[in-house]
Amino acid sequence: MSQPYVVRYVGGPLDGRVDSLPSTPEDPKQTVTYVHLHGGPKIVHIYDLEYAVEYGCEYRLRGEEAEEA
Questions:
Q1: Which of 66, 62, 67, 65 is nearest to 33 (CA)?
Q2: Burial group, residue 1, by CB count within 10 angstroms (0-12, 13-18, 19+)
Q3: Separation CA 64–CA 61 (nearest Å)
Q4: pTM metric for this prediction
Q5: Burial of 59 (0-12, 13-18, 19+ CB in 10 A)
Q6: Structural domain boundaries of the chain?
Q7: 32-63 pLDDT, tens per residue?
Q8: Cα-based distances in Å from 44 to 10, 21, 27, 47, 58
């Protein structure tokens, strides 16, 4: 039995979300766009792909690295 491929989200409204895929995707998306609709203006968050050798990959909210520095 192989381990599932884990995708984590870091920052923004998806922070802490973890998705498990049955296998490694052949061509993972380089960016993920999350659109938040809440009765007001549309808010768009963009996540960029980064690989994590330990478990799969993670998507980091674009611009987070500048805020952490």
A1: 62
A2: exposed
A3: 6
A4: 0.76
A5: buried
A6: 5-63
A7: 999 988 888 899 999 999 987 777 789 999 98
A8: 15, 25, 23, 10, 18
